[in-house]
């Protein structure tokens, strides 16, 4: 079985975004689709314009390096709403720049040198996308601002699976790594699977992984027997867990999550904590003072009631990190992702 797969124009951070679209944000998604169509032809001119206003408070261009409706788009539209409702900015537009696992958006941001009025969301999926596509533009070609939120993958099996707990699944997987077929919604889910395999003493390159484009396809693969298990964003499959179609075995989280009666992988003896984080990045060539203004705006966003509602609605975990610590975290993430792809034989 050929386990390699092409990079698509879906959001690797949240492929399909279907679950979020069903979570009361339909209006925002419709707006996003319309905005993408209207703005699309003028995006290049918009993000490359020479006349720039003072800073992000007076003229904000918020870039989502993916199509409307996915996790990155949701993040920026939630930020946009919080900024508008609380007077944290004016003339705030969200621009979608999809393609190549987020690296087209990253490349676009890297050309906006000296622009203090622009910010882009990125995260684990973008770090993976840079490695996966061999992008010439890297994370250190733009200005890191802050890590803001993260969410976690869950290991799930069909409700009728013979594997009642994680250890039973691991035992069968160890016995014949290629026989147990995993699925997931994108590159991030595959990396979680690879980290779990490595922690369990299984060669990631020997495993079978069937990529899908979101929670719906992941569920279908599991219930039809195409796949035996999945690593998937919890929010993408939680409705199927609640409906009793899927059984959660473990969360890829450092600590137990309030309200979720699912053990973490570290609790079960497997050091798997790769989180799907989202952070903010700015163009290169801005001053420290300009970067601080962008940081302050997003920090203010996180204190608003609108943002707190979004955190609860999207089941995000707030993990603010900035400055030198964020830069070190990025370096560690790049090394981790690179090592996981190497283990996968990529």
UniProtKB/TrEMBL annotation:
Spans through the membrane: 28-48
Q: Where is this region: Disordered?
A: 1-22
Keywords assigned: Membrane, Transmembrane, Transmembrane helix
Reply yes or no: does the keyword NADP apply: no
Xref: InterPro entries: BUG, Bug_dom1
Q: Which residues form a coiled coil?
A: none
Family listed: Belongs to the UPF0065 (bug) family.
Name of the protein: Tripartite tricarboxylate transporter substrate binding protein TctC
Species for this entry: Prauserella alba
The organism that produces this protein has a lineage beginning with: Bacteria, Bacillati, Actinomycetota, Actinomycetes, Pseudonocardiales
Q: Which gene encodes it?
A: tctC
């Amino acid at each position: 079985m050929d386990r390699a797969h092409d990079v698509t124009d879906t959001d690797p951070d949240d492929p399909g975004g279907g679950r979020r679209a069903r979570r009361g944000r339909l209006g925002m998604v419709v707006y996003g689709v319309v905005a993408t169509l209207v703005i699309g032809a003028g995006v290049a001119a918009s993000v490359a314009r020479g006349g720039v206003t003072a800073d992000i408070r007076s003229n904000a261009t918020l870039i989502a390096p993916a199509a409307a409706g996915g996790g990155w788009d949701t993040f920026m539209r939630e930020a946009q709403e919080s900024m508008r409702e609380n007077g944290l900015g004016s003339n705030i537009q969200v621009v979608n720049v999809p393609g190549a696992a987020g690296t087209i958006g990253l490349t676009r941001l890297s050309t906006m040198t000296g622009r203090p009025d622009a910010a882009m969301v990125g995260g684990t999926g973008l770090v993976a996308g840079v490695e996966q596509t061999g992008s010439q533009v890297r994370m250190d070609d733009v200005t890191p601002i802050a890590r803001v939120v993260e969410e976690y993958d869950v290991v799930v099996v069909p409700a009728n699976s013979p594997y009642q707990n994680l250890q039973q699944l691991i035992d069968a997987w160890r016995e014949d790594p290629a026989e147990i077929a995993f699925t997931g919604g994108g590159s991030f889910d595959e990396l979680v699977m690879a980290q779990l395999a490595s922690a369990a003493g299984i060669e990631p390159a020997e495993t079978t992984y069937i990529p899908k484009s979101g929670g719906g396809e992941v569920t279908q693969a599991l219930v039809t027997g195409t796949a035996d298990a999945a690593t998937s964003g919890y929010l993408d499959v939680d409705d199927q867990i609640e409906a009793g179609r899927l059984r959660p075995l473990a969360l890829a989280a450092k600590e137990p999550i309030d309200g979720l009666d699912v053990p973490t992988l570290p609790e079960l003896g497997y050091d798997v904590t790769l989180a799907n984080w989202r952070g903010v990045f700015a163009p290169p060539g801005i001053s420290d003072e300009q970067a601080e203004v962008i940081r302050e705006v997003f920090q203010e966003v996180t204190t608003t009631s609108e943002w707190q509602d979004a955190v609860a609605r999207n089941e995000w975990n707030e993990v603010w990190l900035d400055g030198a610590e964020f830069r070190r975290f990025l370096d560690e993430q790049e090394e981790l992702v690179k090592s996981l792809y190497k283990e996968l034989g990529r």
